[in-house]
Design a protein that fits this description.
6-stranded antiparallel β-sheet, mainly beta, 7-stranded mixed β-sheet, Jelly Rolls, globular
Length: about 230
């Protein structure tokens, strides 16, 4: 897994695209309504390719992720300061959880139907940080813990169980506050990308989830002069 995460960091650092910040609350929003909505998202195959497909229903669209014993992500490069734009919102739906019934160790259980990442890469992988929001099947919502593959990946259980699975659920997180709570310090680096993932490689089973309406925003309007790009 460390090798997997390091590959994501290298990819993000090697081809970062800087954005022009616009005035207003929303820095970037993904509705997935356009036919080319995934063209600027990059694939990172970690342990087998997950099928990420843009599904259209009339004018509306969403991303369908299906994992068959596989683990891979798609990510969008967008360097920004989470202190300036701390809010991350999205909609997701779990169609099928990976079967963790036979998993015993934390690494064996490290499969989730739906993950949303904010990536803080560093030239040295040792100092790269990750905030990872997950929909878990058996871990209480609100739990924050280290990934079984390293303390630089902080996992936050946003939703738990099957109660709301099969239906769209909207989430909103303050990434800046979550980072401080998880790592005990402010981010020393800008975020460089967001990512979504569905994986079932550790359990060698299947999982499926849907993603939509991902948005990075600020709680109040900021002028372009207030936001410094690095």
């Amino acid at each position: 897994m460390i090798k997997r995460v390091s590959l994501v960091v290298v990819a993000v650092l090697s081809s970062a695209v800087f954005l022009s910040f616009a005035t207003g609350v929303v820095l970037k929003q993904f509705t997935f309504n356009e036919n080319d909505a995934l063209d600027q998202w990059s694939k990172m195959v970690l342990n087998g390719a997950v099928d990420y497909e843009l599904i259209k229903q009339g004018r509306a669209g969403y991303v369908q992720a299906i994992s068959d014993k596989a683990c891979s992500a798609i990510y969008y490069k967008m360097p920004y300061k989470v202190k300036d734009y701390p809010l991350l919102g999205w909609k997701w739906k779990v169609v099928a959880f990976p079967d963790i019934s036979k998993a015993r160790t934390p690494k064996e259980k490290d499969d989730y139907a739906a993950r949303v990442y904010v990536i803080f890469p560093h030239l040295s992988f040792t100092f790269s940080k990750f905030i990872e929001y997950v929909w878990a099947e058996d871990i209480p919502a609100g739990t924050i813990f280290d990934s079984p593959y390293g303390k630089n990946v902080k996992m936050i259980v946003v939703r738990s169980g099957r109660t709301n699975s099969g239906e769209w659920v909207s989430e909103s997180r303050n990434v800046y506050e979550d980072y401080v709570k998880a790592f005990g310090t402010e981010p020393k680096k800008d975020a460089a990308a967001i990512a979504i993932m569905c994986d079932a490689d550790s359990t060698k089973t299947m999982a499926e989830s849907l993603f939509d309406d991902i948005a990075v925003s600020a709680p109040e309007t900021r002028s372009i002069e207030e936001v410094k790009q690095i």
